[in-house]
Amino acid sequence: MDDRPNLREFLNEVSSFQEDEAAATPAKAAGPAPSAIGTVVEIAGSGSQIRLDASVVAAMQSHADHSVAMSGQVGSQIKTVVGNSWLIANVRTLRAGEPGELVAYVDFLGEGTRDSAGKMSNFRRGVTRYPIPGAEVLPVSTDDMRAIFAASDDPHIEIGTVYPTDDIRGTLYVDSMLGKHFAVLGSTGTGKSTAVSLILHRISELSPEGHIVMIDPHGEYSAAFKGCGELFNVDNLQLPYWLMNFEEHCEVLLTTQDAERQRDADILAKCLLGARIKGKDMSQYGKVTVDSPIPYLLTDLNAIIVNEMGKLDRAGDTLPFQRIKTKLDELRVDPRYTFMFSGMLVSDSMGSFVAKLFRLPSQGRPISIVDVSGVPSEVTSVVVSVLARMVFDYAIWSRTEAQRPLLLVCEEAHRYVPKDETAGGQAVRKILERIAKEGRKYGVSLGLITQRPSDLAEGVLSQCGTIISMRLNNDRDQACVRAAMPEGARGFLDAIPALRNRECIVCGEGVAIPIRVRFDDLEPEKRPASSDPSFARLWRETGDEAGIISRTIKRWRGHGR
Ligand SMILES: Nc1ncnc2c1ncn2[C@@H]1O[C@H](COP(=O)(O)OP(=O)(O)OP(=O)(O)O)[C@@H](O)[C@H]1O
Ligand SMILES: [Mg+2]
Q1: Which neighbouring-strand residues pair with 102?
Q2: What are the pocket residues of ligand 1 if the criterion is a CB atom closer than 6 Å to any ligand atom?
Q3: What is the C-alpha to C-alpha distance for residues 478 and 472, in angstroms, rounded to an integer?
């Protein structure tokens, strides 16, 4: 509550004006069943209005039940009766009205059944009947909260504790959350990676036969999933170059721009197709295109380029061929590219690659962590593009088979789906945008994690059905989240810049109603390797500096790990 000092000050002021009255009604504040705090004024599409009694709200602040004490504040819930139902609404805005009165805009979230004793049960989202102006508004108690959050039978995971209670569990409904993608947002150090580890660990416990691929640009997650994940990095990924489609080949092999690039691309297309079909039994493959993931030999591609070049008589025309050939030679000899462009990767390993990456079968390790931190930065986006496209294409081409839904989680998503459409790495951007738009139909779910939502391409965030927002300090980022959040969650927006570390707002498909949650403490062995260094402690330690330096330089020079 200390994150909204203005409101507090205001309420304190109001209560001091009304001291006599408040003192005269102490029973109200301490009593077990709080009475009305106001009335409904207007029901309208754009937002319904209620009027609250400022002195009652102020007195309520010292109520023993935290939920009741919060009631009436922005982001809190209130309830009102319609027939045999309780309607629950969220307070979106609050302002002073007539003396002694507060006027609030509220969003109705859902309704629950009201029994003869006034208890709520069977809460569901959506409202069938609205209250009539004049109806009483009551605070929501912890018991009501319990009824709202009583986990239904739908598969769910628990992630933390619902604010302001200390015992109600915040749950995420797995099917609804993954069905329509999710995003985890928050400024640096607010606990995103730890939150994602926690969520993925809980999902893996719920679904040990799951299929999750996590792209990890900083190599943080291997530490968190040692026990229950398959770990890949440049040493064991063995991503065959021939899995790249034509666009990805262009991003790796072409070095020119504009008209020249177009010309180089035409030449590459012709030579690549030649290499793909060379020596193949066409009856086995059917129609082969430059995009088909069919193994070919880099030496064949090289030979075809040289051969085509030989057919030309004027020396000047050979330049594009030479450019492609030079780049190809570079990749083949550069040890940093061995994970992708090695002579060892020529055999048709597509089946085993798909099986190990997508955990088919999962063998008790439902999650693949692909640590791309060792990938040369020039090709990181292509590597991510190939992996994301494999996920999507697998889902498309396996439609007639038993369905195996896949979840692709992408850290630092703003790097791969940036707002800037002119930057390099368009292949990865296209495939991730496509998964965001169409993935649901094919059973592919996307989890995007970013500290800079305002740098994400427009529209991607609004495709995410569930938004988990941790603290965001920057105005532009807050505005982006505001635009992507569903109506009913607007009351929580003010809390976003004021959240503590490890606290978040969750709204959308994955939760019964928008909630503010404090994430559980995650066991140290399940945390990503991203902990904040303790300068004070580490700067007191010393010893083995020579060894540290020589080992570091060895790895540095040898690009070893
Ligand atoms: N639920 C949690 N349980 C235990 N520790 C946590 C939890 N959440 C965050 N932390 C701690 O907070 C620190 C920062 O967390 P984390 O690395 O997840 O932040 P981040 O938002 O991913 O940061 P960045 O944007 O820099 O990647 C870490 O030291 C982590 O151990
Ligand atoms: Mg992180």
Answers
A1: 52, 96
A2: 186, 188-194, 198, 451, 501-502, 519, 521-522, 527, 530-532
A3: 6
Secondary-structure class of domain 170-238+349-529 per CATH: alpha beta
Task: Give the distance (Å) from ligand 1 centre to CA of residue 130.
Answer: 42
Residues 176 and 465: beta-carbon distance below 8 Å: yes
In this structure, the residue with its CA closest to atom 15 of ligand 1 is: 191
**pTM score, whole prediction:** 0.86
> Closest residue (by CA) to atom 24 of ligand 1?
188
Best residue among 161, 193, 220, 450 to mutate for probing ligand 1's pocket (most ligand atoms within 8 Å of CB) is 193
Q: Mapping DSSP to helix (H, G, I), strand (E, B) and coil, where does residue 113 land?
A: strand
Is 162 strand, coil or helix?
strand
The ranges of the chain annotated as CATH 3.40.50.300 are 170-238+349-529
Dihedral sign, CA of 390, 393, 399, 401? negative
CA–centroid distance, residue 305 to ligand 2 (Å): 44
The residue whose CA is least distant from atom 25 of ligand 1 is: 188
The whole-chain average pLDDT of the chain stands at 87
Q: 32: cis peptide before it, omega within 30°? A: no
Q: What's the CA-to-centroid distance between 24 and ligand 2, angstroms? A: 52
- Neighbour order of strands in the sheet with 367-371: 169-173, 156-162, 515-519, 503-508, 466-469, 182-185, 444-450, 406-410, 212-216, 367-371, 229-232
For 275-296, what is each residue's pLDDT tens digit? 999 888 777 778 889 999 999 9
Q: How many CB atoms lie within 10 A of CB 311?
A: 8
